[in-house]
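Case study 2.
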Amino acid sequence: MKKKYIISVDLGGTKILSALIDNENNIISRLKVETAKDEGVIGLVKSIANSVNSLTVENNLTSADIKAVCLGVPGAVNPLTGVIEIAPNLGIENFNIKEELYKEISIPVLIENDVNLAGLGIKKFELNDNVKNMLVVFVGTGIGSALFFEGKIYRGSSFYAGEIGHIKVSPKGEISGDSKSLSFEQLASRTAIVKEIKKDLKKGKKSLLKEFKSNKKTLKSKALANAIKKKDPLAIKHITNASKIIGSVLGSLTTFLNVDTIILGGGVIEAMNDFMMPIIKKNFNKTVIDACGKEVQIFETKLGDDAALYGGVALAEEFI
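Prediction:
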């Protein structure tokens, strides 16, 4: 009997989102659990395995019914060997998750960078494969991207393509060669935004976010979005600054890459798209060379968290 299902797993810095998908590309069931970073890499593998097993058991299936587990990882990965070269937000380096996970679940495992996986899902299910040169950028705990040229994903010579979060950037969003410059994600990710807000809160600045002054209290995108809606000056200040940097970096990259489509996603964009996008586009237009920028479409993905889940379908089609 032909195997009818895949399980897609989006391994994030704070959560593991898994989904059972049938051969007609319907998401049958979902499961979200916290990322067990404190339990080490083997604990992380066991958490993923438990998610996979839960989805199969809850849907009266066995591992024999699943043709592949497609795993998106926030870092540089080699999809051919299954090795995570480095995933800084998870504290993983040079680890073959494909082999270790297979020991737990006995199902073929495919791995991909998480934003590459989301990009594959967006290209196939949101854009119906009707895109030529595209940059996909997700802004969340960190910042990652995926590149598509001539309709095909570009992974790079050593599978590091798209590590946009580590580009050195000045505080004004200019791509910089200065060794003292911070990385893109150190300036414009949710982690960066929250760090600056908490710094101001400790200085005594007034804000609706004062309850998050303590480092023990997590400030997430939803709370930031609520503060923006209530016109909190501290939230407006730092999210505006991050949006300007994002726009400027995208403008410079478009001048270099000459893409025709830029898709934005991730928790920060999803929560605050209406506020951020006009600022991003304005600073994009200030930075990009007119000849490169005038035809570029920039918009938010409508798939949200499902982008990476659907990307598992495209990944399975490529490698199985």
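The radius of gyration is 20 Å.
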